[in-house]
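Quarterly update from the structural biology core.
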Amino acid sequence: MIASSNMQKNILLKRNRLKENFYTIKLMMKPFGLGYKIIDMCPNFCMLYYDEDANLIKCKTYGRARYKPNTSRGRALVAYKRLRYFPPTFRLQRLFISIKTIEHMTWHHSHDAVDRVMVYLFGS
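Predicted structure, tokenized:
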């Protein structure tokens, strides 16, 4: 990620306002509430270690281990598979803030459906 932000900085004009590295970009984006939650999951994709299953070490269905074997001392546990969950609440709130996007988001509510007449592309 750091290499890609540096590459982008080299490609852009001298007056660009792109931050120096990925870490500063993440810090800049944090106040917007566009983060994500990392949830461990079974390597067989059969369950998520979430809510009441968050403390389990093995899969309920197949009994597979949740974490990779720890080969060095002091190393944190690393899950085989991880899911990144992007909560939609803040993203939807941001879409409804702008008057321009509200018109598009509420199109179906404000337009009546007419039988056998295509009024929208997805209505066909």
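The helical segments are 2-11, 22-29, 88-97, 99-105, 107-110.
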